[in-house]
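Hi L.,

You mentioned the student needs an example of a multi-chain input paired with its predicted structure. This one should do, with 844 residues in total across all chains.
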Amino acid sequence: MALIIQKYGGTSVGNIDRVRSVARRVIQSAARGNRVVAVVSAMAGETNRLIDLGKTVSKNSEGREFDVLLATGEQVTTALLALAIEDQGRKAVSFLGHQVQITTTGSFSRARIESVNAERTRKALDDGYIVVVAGFQGATREGSITTLGRGGSDITAVALGVALKADRVEFYKDVDGIFTADPAVCPDARLLPRVAYEEMLEMSYLGAKVLHPRCVELARRNGLPLVVRSSLNFNPGTVVVPEEDLMEYAAVAGIVCDKNQVKVSLTGIPDKPGILAGIFTAVAEADINIDMIVEDVSSASGGTSVSFTCGSADLAAAEKVAKKLTAAFPGGAWGVKAGLNKLSIVGAGMRLHSGVASRMFTALAREGVGVYMVNTSDIKVSCLIEAKYAELAVRTLHEVFELSKAPAKKAAKAGKGPRRSI
Amino acid sequence: MALIIQKYGGTSVGNIDRVRSVARRVIQSAARGNRVVAVVSAMAGETNRLIDLGKTVSKNSEGREFDVLLATGEQVTTALLALAIEDQGRKAVSFLGHQVQITTTGSFSRARIESVNAERTRKALDDGYIVVVAGFQGATREGSITTLGRGGSDITAVALGVALKADRVEFYKDVDGIFTADPAVCPDARLLPRVAYEEMLEMSYLGAKVLHPRCVELARRNGLPLVVRSSLNFNPGTVVVPEEDLMEYAAVAGIVCDKNQVKVSLTGIPDKPGILAGIFTAVAEADINIDMIVEDVSSASGGTSVSFTCGSADLAAAEKVAKKLTAAFPGGAWGVKAGLNKLSIVGAGMRLHSGVASRMFTALAREGVGVYMVNTSDIKVSCLIEAKYAELAVRTLHEVFELSKAPAKKAAKAGKGPRRSI
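Structure written out for the whole complex:
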């Protein structure tokens, strides 16, 4: 008898019919003998409605009382799902963040989970209840309601999974799982039956919106299998597992493309200790979320050039900072290139395959796609390219790395099969 | 420095402008040096919206999960009011039912308060916060959210007032206070500056919708002064105090008229022990809320006649029961008179004045108003009359008992003034 956490996002509970449909799915899983905890988000659009409501009475849009307001969104769906399950004839009980004893820091609107006391949930499961838990919320030790920020409901699901030692956490989405590339861009995109935590993490950081990096990291640290699947069908979806459990084996697992990137270049910067720290302190103080940073010390002018990227929402702020920073140096200059995409290939297999980056650059060059910046880690290569080439580049790399074909199986080691069967 | 509970109903917080206006009023009271706890209802209409939402997924319209759903209505206004107060520059903190530690029975949708632990509220007041509390909700000892049923937010305010030993509880309404009669019917109606708990209780039971009898009774038992006033102006309103604190002195304090009453009469009932119990058990099993009961044993036929009244919503059910009950007795018969109003005069002074009922009957007879049933207590006389005479009867009695004039002051006893000055 497996203990399963099922997480349903805002679209999956977006209206009453969908809530009923989620209730049916939860009951089906329970009827197969599983112990089921359903974690729900607010109905799609509800959190924004509450934020707008709060902003009409308050200049601030966060803090203790904002969290009290926002937490009602998940409370409503939690109650509705529990009611729908009971209406379909199964015992259900709902728990809010403070009831399921998710204790968090007091940093309202972006609280971090400190501990989860799973006793009450475990007891309810033992008593035959389907447990419905409000995602996105917790409470401080003093009992103030908190919300967990972006990806909060996913975090709730994984944190509960860890505390309950669940067999897996299933995320129900409006997509079938994790694909080798965006199927809307690349018709050959293939559903990945399994990906490694590290790959999922990189993909999340690199712009795949499916799972929040915080929740993938938490699952990885605790070896908790995650499943990403559709709430609209019964396909098995994608399982996120430790790298050593992967049965497939390819250099590149998938391609991710993150839109609306801006590259900011500062040149003629004196090559002195502390200069970079000064630059990025100024950038951080301007509230700019930077992503990639490239520094090239050996420029002919004797100075340094530094480039960084950020989202296009930060364009104006970035220009202002760049202007101010370079004005301070004789010979300092700055430039901005907007309308870029960050194209990344991700694969744990890269550690074992060489020449992956070179194959990527060759293919892009062949299609006339210029590369504005490169950033690498042991399992990913990211290139900044012009947005107009994004679809072409994704399709080209998808073909070059043969992602539409299932990769060769790993040679089975004697006496050691996959550790978990899901 | 007084400790004041201010209760704002759904109309008073019915939109964002009104929430802001409530915030101003709360802050004004605090600026005068008072310690203020504001108790709020859900925005007008919100509780019904949530009930409708719940009914779309559930055949049941009450129970544990329904309370989780309904409690969000008050949670939203609580957060909004706290935000609005902070936005106007004062420290505010919101508490939900479980946070303010209102512990209730587990009878969901109509829970009764068992205890209130006021420590947290008192500490927040000591720390200079204006405290905003969600009305209508509490939690069981096990931590399940409960709601308190009709009049729930009023009960929250009074229960908190008792626990905090508040100086008074102020109810902010869309009326100026308690009047001698409905001003819409009787242009001469006068605002009562003070009424006794007992009078307020009778008026509430008799159909004045201003305060719920449960909360008046709780305040009376604890000697907690109540104030009923308008949220739209700064008039002082009506103070509800112990009878001995009344400074005015009249036989009749006010007139209340309750619409949509039905009288059911059963005749030819055998005069045997237990027969009444059987009748009213059957009535209760049919879920009919009965109000007045009159029995006349000495009827010429040797049998008994019994009449009772109920709301017109119960008419069909009452006819069915009456038919079934009288069919069992030879000579049994039944009749129903719909379209009646219950007209009541209430006054603690009746205990000292004789002839009040006779003045009432004489005045009604003079105007040709027939009386279908009479019921009395030590501080009220109720008559069932035809609905068409209701306005005429109210105005007639208002004049006969000279309610538009302020009554004579009590002779001040040496050394004993009013115990509280509000």
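You could point out the following to them. Chain B has two domains: 3-174, 255-400. Residues 412-422 of chain B have pLDDT under 50 and may be disordered.

Best wishes,
N.
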